[in-house]
Amino acid sequence: MKKNILRILGIFVLGTFGGIFADQILWPYFIERPLFYQYRLEQSPVYVTERKEITVEENVALQGAIERSEKIVVGVRAEKKSGEVLEGSGFIITSDGLIVTLNNLLPYNSEFNFFVDGKSVAYQVLKRDPENNLVLVKLEKNNLPTLAFADFGKTKLGERVFLVGAIFQKEGVKKVVNEGIIKDFEEDFIETSIIDKIDLKGSPLFNISGEILGINTVNSAGEVVAIPVSKIKQFINI
Question: Does residue 160 register a pLDDT over 90?
Fold first, then answer.
């Protein structure tokens, strides 16, 4: 009886070691031989974890960029003599108070208000470019936050972008965010997938790094189309 048990245990042990030997040594050796190479099992690359990590990193980067970007956004409000009110955004380009917004947000012979951190700030309109729909304004305020301009030459189709705009509510000026991708772009425009359901004209468009790509307009279909940063830089001579 004991001999049978020992024999069974011996067979089990030998089988176990034989399986390990075949799997770890014998099979890898033969599978690399020319005769067996065609049966070699290729390990397919797995991207799920990598893609998940990239998505998480992009989302974290986006959150950080939004936190920095909202600080440069200025609320813009104009009231025409007819009583019509125009509302939108602009953004700070220098720490001593230079801002850019859309020319059609500041009609001639209107009363203007610019809001930084929810407070109205004195101003002076310095320069207009009606053809490119840009206007340069100097706010009477210093030590303001700024962000870098993006390199327009590195802009890519499908690139992830976001905007931060100022909207006016009863309780004051509020910042809102929207995001999308670049659908098309040329020297004179950047077309995005962002749809504007509220008035975000004049808001800056950013890349995922928080660099300024352009200033936003909204077409008749509600699609956000930006004036590129190259036009803005040319306008302000930098």
Answer: yes
